[in-house]
């Protein structure tokens, strides 16, 4: 993980606007916000890249910080909602390979669009569901 920007933010080598901190997590303003108050929650540990290799304990700590900050964001910014987003791996849009969850405050009429909805053809949802369950349950 040497050279990772978020590791340098955690160590204090790169400055950031910290909004909240726990023993294992940091919440900072995103430098290029989708909306004012866009926050990133990151684990302080540097041994993982994304959801695929973060430990259960680190993930639990990240999620608890996400919960606390989401509540605070809505209150502090008088927002009408908050989106949680996590990009995992390059083709999912991940640019920084240190786990992080985006919190984007939302406002009525802000114009931000959700992903376009798709559709399953007849029988496809069952096949997809079975594929996923076979990995999870066997
Ligand atoms: P990703 O696409 O990996 O999920 O998102 C990376 C995020 O990190 C982007 O939203 C980007 O604006 C943010 N970012 C990149 N460099 C810095 C930085 O030096 N400081 C902060 N606070 N955010 C950064």
Question: Keywords for this structure?
Answer:
binds guanosine-5'-monophosphate; alpha+beta; HIT family, subunit A; 3 helices; 138 residues; five-stranded antiparallel β-sheet
User: H/E order of the elements?
Assistant: HEEEHEEH
CATH topology label: HIT family, subunit A
Percentage of helical residues?
Answer: 25-40%
CATH superfamily: HIT-like
End-to-end distance: 33 Å
Proportion in β-strands: 15-25%
Number of domain modules:
1
Shape type? globular
pLDDT averaged residue by residue: 96
Describe the protein's architecture and organization:
It is a single chain. With 138 residues, the chain is an alpha+beta fold. It has a single domain, classed as HIT family, subunit A, CATH 3.30.428. It contains three helices and five strands. The chain has helices at 5-11, 56-77, 124-136; strands at residues 18-21, 25-29, 39-43, 81-85, 101-106. A five-stranded antiparallel beta sheet has the order 1-2-3-5-4, covered by helices on one side. The protein is globular, with a radius of gyration of 17 Å. The relative contact order is 0.17. Guanosine-5'-monophosphate (5GP) is lined by residues 5, 14, 16, 28-32, 87, 93-96.
Provide a compact summary of the structure.
Helix content is 30%, strand content 18%.
SSE layout and pairings?
Layout: H1 5-11, E1 18-21, E2 25-29, E3 39-43, H2 56-77, E4 81-85, E5 101-106, H3 124-136
The structure holds guanosine-5'-monophosphate.
